[in-house]
Amino acid sequence: MTTVADAVTSTVDLSPEEAQAYSRLRAICRDLGSTLVAFSAGVDSTLLLKVCVDELGERAVAATAVSESYPSHELQQAKRLARDIGVRLILVETHELADENYASNPTNRCFYCKQELFTTIFPVATEEGLATVVYGANLDDTGDYRPGMQAAKAMGARAPLLEAGLGKPEIRAISRHLGLETWDKPAFACLSSRIPYGERVTPEKLAQIDQAEMALYEAGFRQVRVRHHGDLARIEVPPSDLSRFFSDGINVLVTSRLKAIGFRHVTLDLQGYRSGSLNEGLSAAIASAGTPAMSARRVLPVVNVS
User: Fold this and answer.
1) Which pLDDT tens digit goes with each residue over 227-271?
2) Closest among 302, 303, 300 to 112, alpha carbons compared
3) Based on the domain organization, do 60 and 135 belong to the same domain?
4) Structural domain for 73, as ranges
5) How many domains are contained in the chain?
6) Residue 296, in any domain of the structure
7) 18 with 153, same domain?
8) Contact, 260 vs 118, CB < 8 A?
9) 132 to 61, 113, 138, 143: CA distances (angstroms)
10) What is the pTM of this model?
11) SS3 (DSSP) at 225
């Protein structure tokens, strides 16, 4: 990957359609007047932050939520990216685990996560004299089960990438054009997404997952998920990386590391990584149960998707 400092050598031309999308995004960000950007260091929020800073200068500020569910390596990257982009970064603590609605891990857990996030950062925006709060939802997010987007909308957060009609391909292309190192960064989600619905989210489980995934990153994998099934860890990596586990003793090393942090069994998912694997079958199961897919103010029941 490249860095912001390498922008001159890494920029590539945009297609006419991508250039139009970029122009729309710039106009939307410019019209915000001033804004607080919910910044996770992912490909989406990094592009959003960069464009807001380019258009608004010091009237754009970044806010990163710090909690047990946020991977430690992502926090370090968020600090570095903010410094490279040249924006002030505010770290705010969120306490979603203190909310039983979240900790019980219902199917709409993400609603309560986003509710906690925006309940925390909207007052920060007010204190800073910033007119808006924005976050990195995009067009592709409308195709999966995303209760967190409902919470964001209910609280008044805006999604300029979505408003501009940008999906992930355009976001990556524009990011590369701007020389952002995140242009080819794999997707990631909060650590709680590794725990099956209905199984309680605890600080101990999240710490295990964080350490386990760090072991895989240190072994050279770029896109990983360690799904937490009690004393069993189910590892997901892209199908193209599956064979790497059985070379250079990586399987032995990873197994040893994961057992050292508390897992008794370490398994490799032969289907490979896929985003939202714990959501597989969820929408159909919710529909067959006659339960609304999203509920703004109540905990959805856990649905048996087996």
Assistant:
1) 999 999 999 999 999 999 999 999 999 999 999 999 999 999 999
2) 300
3) yes
4) 4-184
5) 2
6) no
7) yes
8) no
9) 11, 20, 18, 26
10) 0.86
11) strand
